[in-house]
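Retro notes
What went well: the complex prediction finally ran end to end.
Inputs used:
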Amino acid sequence: MSKPPFTVNKRVAVLIVLLLSFSVSKGQLADTLKEVKIKAKKKRFISNDERINTYAPGQKITSIDSITLRQYQFQSVANLLAQQSPVFIKTYGINGLATLSFRGASAAQSQVYWNGVPLQNAAMGMSDVSLLPVALMNKINLVYGSSSAMWGSGNVGGALVVENEKPYFDTTNVFHHSIYAVAGSFSQYQLGLRSGFSTDKWYVAINGFGQSAKNNFSYVDGTTERKMSNASLSSGVGLLQVAYKADSKNIVSLTGWYQQYYREVPRALFESQSVKNQRDESLRLLADWNRTGKSVHTSVKLSYIRDYMRYQDTLALLNTINASNQLYAEVAARFALGKRHRIMIMTPVSVQWVDSASISKTNTQNRYGIAANYLYTDLKSKLRVALSLRGEAVDNNSYLLPGGNIGYDLTSWLTLKANLQKTYRVPTLNELYYNPGGNRNLLPESGWSTDAGYAFHSRSVSRVVLNHELSAFNRVIDNWIVWFGGAIWTPHNIATVHSRGVETDNKLTVGLGKLNLHIALNTSYVLSTTVSSHISGDGSIGKQIPYAPRYNGQVNIGFNFRQLYFNYNHTYTGYRFITVDESQWLIPYNTGNVQLLYTLPVASNNLQFTAQCNNVWNKRYQVVNGRPMPGINLLLGIRFDVDY
Amino acid sequence: MGRTYFQNIISGILGVSLLSACVKDKPTEPDTKPPATTEPSGNVYTVCEGSLGNGNSTLYLYNYKTATDHGNIYETVNTGSKLGDVFQSILRIGDKWFLCINNSDKVLVLDSTRKQIGVINIPKPRYILPVSDTKAYVSTLFSNKVYIINPQSMSVSGTIDMPYQNPEFMVMRNNKAYISTWDTACGNIYTIDIATDKVQDAIAINNRAPHGLAVDKDGNLWIVSGNVYKGKQAAITQLNGKDEVMQTFYFSAKSDVIKPVFNLAKDVLYFIQVDYNGGTDNNGIYRMNINDIQLPKAPFVAAQKFQYFWALGVEPQSGNIYVGDPKGFIQKGAVAVYNTEGKQVNSFAVGVGPSSFYFE
C-alpha cells in the first residue's frame, strides 16, 4: 500500500488555531464584509477571459461571488457547486470521483477550463471536480449551454471556468500574506498559506495547503449502523504564479500548479469490504504572454498538463497506472473596429497522449483549430450580437462550428438573451483506444443547442434589490456515446438524446441599515430523454438518461450584519435513474447547510473565522447508488490576512 | 412606471419560473407485485448479474408451463433486500438455494421459498459444484483458491489451492471434479480427488485460459478456452473418458466463445459467440453436433448490430433454447425462447444483465 503524500499533524493544526485565536485584539471593528462581496458588478469583470466578458452577451453565465468563494474556501469546487448551483454533481461518495452534468449533459460534455486552458483528463475527457480546491481560485464562472465555436470540443452542456488571481502590478510594493488552519468532523485538518507581493514590475504569489481526513463517519447499511473505514484522505497542493511586466504593453506570466491526493476508496454498500486506494498527481504549467497594443491585444498561451493516477485494489489484483498528457498552445488577437465592432481570433492547438498499459503511446489525439469571434454593439449599447465560427481538425477529421448569441437591453432593468450553437464532442482517447473495449469507429457526438431567456435586475440604489434570471434551453445530440457491456465495456454511438428545460436564478436583498438580508432561489428543470437508438428493443426511448435529475434547486437565506455573515443553504435533488430505461432509481434528497463568516480587523489586517455545518438535518442519502454520504459534519477555520 | 406594474411583472416572472415544471418526477411503480407463491415445476430462474459497481443484480423467475412471470423473486420474498453486486450463478442443493454474488464476496443461502437463511463469506465466488450431501466446491475469481463448503451447515470447511488463478467452471465426471482455471498462463484443466480434496491431474488442452465445461452423451468433456482481449485465441477441446484430447477446434482471432451447454440428448453443443464491438460477424448463438469435424459457420440465432447474448440455457421439458439479451447491461434485459428449429416461440423481460438460467 502506498503512503499518503502529506499528513497534517492534529496537534500542529490545533496549536495554530489557538495561537491565531489569542492574537485577536478586541474592539477594532470595521465593516469589512462589504469589501468581499461581489467584486465587480460590471459583467466584463467577472472573468479574465474575453470569451466570457465580451463574446457571450446572450449566454447565461453565473459568477460565484467572492463571499460565496470565502464560505467554501476550505472545500472543493464539487461541494460548492453541489450546494450553490443547479449543475448536478455526480459524487461517488466520500473520496470518490465527482463530475459535472450541465443541463442533462454527460460528464464528458461538461467541460472545465483553468485560466482558459481545457483541464479535463486527456484520456477520460472529464474532470474530477472534487480535486479542484476553491482555495486556489479567484474567480469561478459557470457558462450554461453550448459554445463549442468559442470553447471547442466537449462544450455541449456548459463549462466551468476557474481562474487564479490575475497578476497585478503596484508601484507601492504590496505584500499580502494569509495563513489558515481548519479542523472539522471526521478528523479533518487543513493548513494553508498564501503569500504574494507585487511591485511595478513583478508579481509573485504562492498558494498551498495540506490536508488530511479520516472520514470515518457513521452510515446505515440496511438496518445496521456502521463506521466508514478505508476512507482516509491526504493531499498536498501548491500553486506558484510569477508575472513580469516588461513595459507598459507586455506582461509575461508563468503559473505552476502541482497537487497530489491520496484517497482510500471506501466500500460501497454492496461490497463486503474495500482495500482500494487511489493516488492522483497533477502537474499543470501555463506560460502566458500578453501584449496590449494601441489597437490590437495579443496573447499567447502555452500549457502542459499531466494527470497521473494510480489505482490499487489488491482484492481484484488491480494496480493500474495511467498518466494523461496534454500540450496546449493558443495564440489570440483581439481588436476593435470603431465603437461598434470587436473581433477576436484564436488558434488553439492541442496534443494529447496517455502513458498507460491500456493505451498505446502511438494513439494520440491532435487538435488544430482557428476560431473567430465577432461582437456588434449598437450605438446605445442596448443590442449586443456575438457571432462565432470555429474550424477544427481532430486527427484526420475536420469540423465547422458556427454559433451566435444576442443580448438586448429591453429596458434598464430587463435584458433579453438568446444563444444558438452547433455543438460537438470528439471521442476521448479512452473511448477510441482503451484496451479492452475501445472503439476506433466512434463518431463525434454532435447537434444543435439553443437557449433563450431574460435577466431582470432591479435598481441597485434601492434598499430592495431583486435579481431574477430565467433561461430555457433545447438541445438535440446525435451519436450520443454510451458505454455498455458486462465483462468488456465498449462505447458505441447509440442514441439521439433530446435535452430541454428551464432554469431560474432569483435573489432578493434587503438593506436595513447595517443589516442586509438576502434570500435566493435557484431552480432547474431538465428533461433529457433518449429519442432514438440503434439497440434492438431498446427500453430507453422516451426515458430520462441516467444520473440527470429532472429537478433540483437551492435556497439560500441569510444576512450580514457588520462583520458577521450568516447563510442557510438548502438543496433539493430529485430522482436519479440508474438505468437508461428508468427501471432502477435513487430517491430524492434534501440537505441543509449553514455557513458563518466573521471578520475581525486587527490593525490593518484581518482575522477571519469561518464555520460550515454541512447536512445539518443529518439526512441519510446517496448521490450515486450504494455510496453513502456523510451525515451532519462541521468544518471550522481561521484565517489571518496580513497586508502591508 | 407604477408600482402595480412593477409588482405584476415580478409576480409573473416568478410564477412562470416556479411553475414551469410539467413532468412528474416520481417513477412509476408496478401496479401489482408478481406472485411470490410459485409452481412446483416448470420454473426457470434467470440470473441477472446487474452491471458491475452498481449493486443491481436480481433473480427473476418465470414459469414456462403456466407462462407466469414472478418477476424479481428474491426482492419480492425478502421484502426489498438487494442481492448485491454481480450475481454470478445459482444452484439448488437439496432444499436450499445457493447464490454466488461475486463482487459482494458472499454466497447467499435461501430456503425452498427463496427466503434468505444464511450467508457464506467467500471472496469473489463464481460457481458451485456439489460433491456430496455435505460437501461442495466454490470457485473464485482473482485467487487460486477453490473453497470447500458444507451445504448443510452453510459454512466453509476448507480450501483447495489450484496451480493457477481464477478457478472457474467445474463439472463432475468419472467421480472426479474437473476444474477450469481461467488464467491466460494456464494450458491445462485439473482434476480433483473428491475424497482428499487434492489436485490430482493436469490435462493439457492445446490452448490457454480454460473457462467453460460441458459433458456430452458419451461422457466426453468439452472445454471452452481463450481470452480474446488478452491475446488468447478461443478454442473448444474435446476430452474422452480417459482424459485424452480427441480434437481441438480453434476459432478466428476475434471470436470470444462462452457458456457451452448441451441439448437434452446431449449430442448438440450450443454456445455463444460475442462481438463486444457491436458487429454482427461471429456474434450470436451457435451450435454443432458432437460428431462435427468443423465449427459452425452460420449462427443458430444471429445477434443484431449493437447486440450480443450473455445467457444460454436448454429447457429440460421441450428442449427449447433460452437466450438472454442484456441490452448493454444498462437497462432491463430480455429472454427469447427458440425451438430447436430456431423459431422464436416466447419471450419475457428480466432484470439487468441476464447471464444464466437454472431450470427447476
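What we learned: Chain A touches chain B through 58 residues (CB under 8 Å).
What to try next: split runs per interface for comparison.
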